[in-house]
Design goal:
7 strands; alpha+beta
Length: 163
């Protein structure tokens, strides 16, 4: 019976995790949905947002991919990330995490004094959490400047497309 309970909990956690996962790459279809969106700030500056579910890393990669595609679509060669905002916890991917707690209590009731200690073991079963990355980018043409936050649009597209 104990094995059956553990199996049921494991299957439930797997089903919960499978229900909420990072959607296929594409534009955001509505408020609160997954996907990319962009806003033009100036002729060569954009704010690119990618909203998803799960670990922050894949969502950040998709924001970079969209910035690279936008750069190419606008006729530019490279882009520089001037500001970056990441909203998501490192454990946003969800899963099953064991928890342990220890407690102590005492009371005095009608002349009777009692006390006790306890140890609890539980499972935190959570699905993936919403995550988003916002990049403010400046687009450029010609030779790519040699700075850490400057990306070659074609190279980013080659390396991140299909992930």
């Amino acid at each position: 019976m104990k094995r059956l309970s553990i199996l049921a909990v494991t299957l439930s956690a797997s089903a919960l995790t499978a229900c909420a996962s990072l959607a296929p790459y594409g534009p955001q279809t509505g408020p609160g949905g997954q996907g990319f969106s962009e806003q033009r700030i100036e002729s060569d500056r954009y704010r690119v947002t990618y909203s998803g579910v799960g670990a922050p890393g894949p969502v950040a990669d998709r924001a970079l991919l969209r910035a690279a595609q936008l750069t190419s679509q606008q006729g530019y060669d490279w882009f520089e990330v001037t500001q970056r905002y990441i909203d998501g916890r490192p454990d946003s991917a969800g899963g099953v995490r064991p928890t342990v707690s220890v407690g102590y209590g005492s009371s005095n009731y009608g002349g009777w004094r009692t006390s006790g200690t306890g140890v609890g073991v539980g499972l935190n079963i959570s699905g993936p959490s919403p995550t988003s990355t916002v990049l403010e980018v400046r687009l450029g043409r010609g030779t790519k400047p040699d700075r850490a936050e400057v990306y070659d649009a074609d190279e980013v597209e080659r390396n991140l497309a299909g992930r």
